[in-house]
Amino acid sequence: MPAIDREEKVITCNFLYYGPSQGGKTTNLSALYNFAVNKSRGNLVNLATQTDRTMFFDYLAIAFDILEDYKTIFNLYTVPGQLFYDATRKTILKTLPVVDGVVFVADSQIDRRDANIESLWNLQHNLQSNGLSIYNLPYVLQLNKRDLPNICTTEEMKRELLLKDEIVIEAVADKGIGVLETLRAVSKKTLQNFKQKHNVLVSG
Ligand SMILES: Nc1nc2c(ncn2[C@@H]2O[C@H](COP(=O)(O)OP(=O)(O)OP(=O)(O)O)[C@@H](O)[C@H]2O)c(=O)[nH]1
Ligand SMILES: [Mg+2]
């Protein structure tokens, strides 16, 4: 559940971006950083190897006007997608604040089908280890890299990756396409559950 500060009128949500290596998680955060005006974004913290692949995690705090009366701050985290970083992923997930919502960034390229499926299993396993379940969390599936030539159809990807009634968004993250929509979708879902409990208004 997001944290609410009624005196300061601030709601804070923690979202986790997960997915296979090179799928575009860090690119999503960079694009969001570029979209946001200065005063509504914090520093984008990248902890990457020399080859630009995330080694520990990326972190971005960003503020959006989604609620009437309340300022909403989203803390966005990624973890490294590479398989051999699973121990790192587990450690980071234990250290991060409790996850309020998850975005799975799938790579649409045909040769990344197995990597998507493996990462999705790994996500479920690692959430479970932290006492969480994808079935109880707001969750959005992003099909990224729709601009590339050798990609699966969206129907194929849905058949393989859909878990529940999640929203599916097509994206070209390095062009900023679908990135805001993805964040909006996961935050809306998160805040809809929340507003019923706390009686605040969600707009948009
Ligand atoms: N063509 C294309 N390239 C993309 C797109 N999104 C990201 N990329 C590129 O894919 C590469 C990997 O993107 P990253 O954002 O670093 O991937 P990641 O998921 O953070 O990878 P790890 O940190 O290894 O887990 C980069 O070179 C991006 O510029 C897209 O939609 N289309
Ligand atoms: Mg990365």
Question: How does this model look, in words?
Answer:
By secondary structure, this protein is α/β, with parallel strands linked by helices. The protein has one domain: P-loop containing nucleotide triphosphate hydrolases (Rossmann fold, 3-Layer(aba) Sandwich), CATH 3.40.50.300. The chain is 32% helix and 25% strand. The chain is built from five helices and eight strands. Strands 1, 2, 3, 4, 5, 6, 7 and 8 form an eight-stranded mixed β-sheet that branches. Helix 2 crosses helix 3 (113-129). The longest helix is centred in the last third of the chain and has 20 residues, at 179-198. The mean pLDDT is 87. The structure holds guanosine-5'-triphosphate and magnesium ion. The site of guanosine-5'-triphosphate has 22 residues, from helix 1.
Task: Produce the secondary structure layout.
Blueprint: E1 3-5, E2 10-18, H1 25-35, E3 45-48, E4 54-64, E5 71-78, H2 86-95, E6 101-107, H3 113-129, E7 139-144, H4 154-161, E8 167-170, H5 179-198
Parallel strand pairs: 2-5, 2-6, 6-7, 7-8
Antiparallel strand pairs: 1-2, 3-4, 4-5
Helix pairs in contact: 2-3
The structure holds guanosine-5'-triphosphate and magnesium ion (MG).
Short structural summary:
The chain has helices at residues 25-35, 86-95, 113-129, 154-161, 179-198, and strands spanning 3-5, 10-18, 45-48, 54-64, 71-78, 101-107, 139-144, 167-170. It is an alpha/beta fold and 204 residues long.
